[in-house]
């Protein structure tokens, strides 16, 4: 058998590799194709297992199947073409490509796509909510949609992180259903998630904004990085406000932005005029310049800006 796994979502590739190992056999060899020649790896695939069982041979980072022109090692792709014609029935070869595209102009890629037992593309998930809900079922529990929305909003789209946090929730919650309330005190904090909370507190004039900011400083987060995320969120709110004033729907225009973030921005923009939001963005730009030129203490500068907005 020959499996071709490619794409940029490392978690999905890792899960597919685990699935292959569960199904196919017990003896496993693994090669880094930036350090091992293709010929050597395929020789291992052609050799029978010492104990007569089946074996799996992983060819990790098979960059020679992409347009990558770096050549740390020269690969004889004809050796792979020969193997495709006469594969070892006791070996499963898994070619792993950590790239979103294969170079389909190459003969070896064309042959692989035709003869591979399976071709698996690990695409980044635009919306991880559905994945979270389905993943939770694997652990024997139900995750509500709203809880999934909040998890993605606070943690981002890193599936390794989302899976780790989901595992924590499954262990921490006794009920068969994990709801929005169950997330409190269990989810790990992220910089982006905390900055979103700061924006929300600022908009509704709540002093908790300063408390979260102080926490971020204690955790060692950089003021400029916090300011950039802060400015990005106000930029989104400004865009949503401007689109509404044109009589259009932000969700139809702002492609690539999670619908939950747009919905939040739609609520938040009601409390501001276009001029107010433009002033917020101007404040961020001016402070960013002052910080980078050393005209102010970064921590005091950011705290002063938040106080000004409250």
UniProtKB/TrEMBL annotation:
It comes from Lysinibacillus sphaericus (Bacillus sphaericus). It catalyses: DNA(n) + a 2'-deoxyribonucleoside 5'-triphosphate = DNA(n+1) + diphosphate. Residues 3-117 form the DNA polymerase III delta N-terminal domain. This is DNA polymerase III subunit delta. GO terms for molecular function: DNA binding; DNA-directed DNA polymerase activity. Keywords: DNA replication, DNA-directed DNA polymerase, Nucleotidyltransferase, Plasmid, Transferase. Residues 193-308 form the DNA polymerase III delta subunit-like C-terminal domain. GO terms for biological process: DNA-templated DNA replication. GO terms for cellular component: DNA polymerase III complex. The lineage of its organism: Bacteria, Bacillati, Bacillota, Bacilli, Bacillales. Its EC number is 2.7.7.7. Belongs to the DNA polymerase HolA subunit family. It comes from the Bacteria. Coiled coil: none annotated.
